[in-house]
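All the exercises in this workshop are built on plain-text protein records. A learned vocabulary of local backbone shapes supplies the integers on the structure line. Once this layout is familiar, the rest of the handout is easier to follow. An example says more than a description, so a record of this kind follows:
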Amino acid sequence: MKKKTVRSWMLYDFGNSAFSTTIMAAVLPVFYYDVAAVGLDESLATSYWGYSQSIAVLIVAILAPFLGAISDYSAAKKKFLRFFAFMGMIASVLLGFVGEGDYIFASLLLIIGTIGFSSANIFYDAFLPEIADEDDIDKVSSNGFAFGYIGGGILLAINLLMILKYQWFGIPNATVASQISFVSVGIWWFIFSIPLLKNVKEEKKKPIKRDKSYLSIGFTRVTSTFKEIKQYKQLLIFLLAFWMYNDGISTIIKMATIYGRDIGIDKNSLIAALLITQFVGIPFTFLFGWIAKKITAKKALLITLYIYIGIVILGYFMTTALHFYLLAVCVGFVQGGAQSLSRSIFGRMVPADKHGEFFGFYGISSKFAAIFGPFLFALVGQLTGSSRLGIVSLVVFFVIGIILLRFVNVEKGMAEAKIMEKK
């Protein structure tokens, strides 16, 4: 395994994770509420943010299978990665020019940036089997994930300091500091993508011959996998459960900050809380991996989902910054654990010869499922005029997810996979 190549690959995650922390989760939601959507009804601003998130995820979900086909059938992964990464970087920088009342411009840039961020990750992930030896692939993948936590957290901490203490940096006010933080994401992302673009060499191979368009190939892949996956009863039940509870989790990630702003939590406390979640998540992700060995992954996953129900209910009654800090810590406890355990349970029930195909479907289907949470949050908030009712509506995703998960028999699912492997 070439250490320089692997480090270069991981540094990309170190850089692009700043988009998910500063823009998707922490600073932009507050800025959108306070500046871009100024003058709108408060609950309407929150709803528009939710609709923007849903539109972005929908477009990414539609594009994903076709981009995956391009990744498999072409010899130009780096070229496509560069294109979409630059799209996200440019959108991040342009967010620095969003001013008061520019909520449509802000929503448009959020959507474009999310498309660039998520699409580039498809090609980034496709490099993993090329740069890591088979024995080291799990380690390299985990280290890349950890690098992302660290890189996104470091820039968020810098931006938080700049927003809280803007005078130290000679910045006139917190609004300008927030705008500069968006620009910093694009620059940070660009700097740490240079090693990958320079040092990670694409395997020299001719593009696979094809007699169909990428559009046709992508559509055929998704439909064929969907038909085949129905033969795996336990895996299908798990997927249904995953779609439900993961929608709730992703909605909390995307909507927590703007929800807190809507109910009166000051923006500095909100951003600090997101930073807490970022760093609490690192050790607790490893902890839940240890717990899973003691009591099984399914039981450990159920624990995280019960805690999420408590988070949503407490979120309804939240009134102070201290409450938000406590909820941020609780989210940090379970966020990484829920996601990593879901992936490992799914992986156990997938046939050994179909990892790529099934994990591709896992990613695409979860993106489609993640559309409904922000939409429901936004719709309930808009119809009732209360974001508190929007947040509590997420309980339904976790309750249904838990009920379905309890019907999953992982050992039986593994046996089904073994049977299908022999056919």
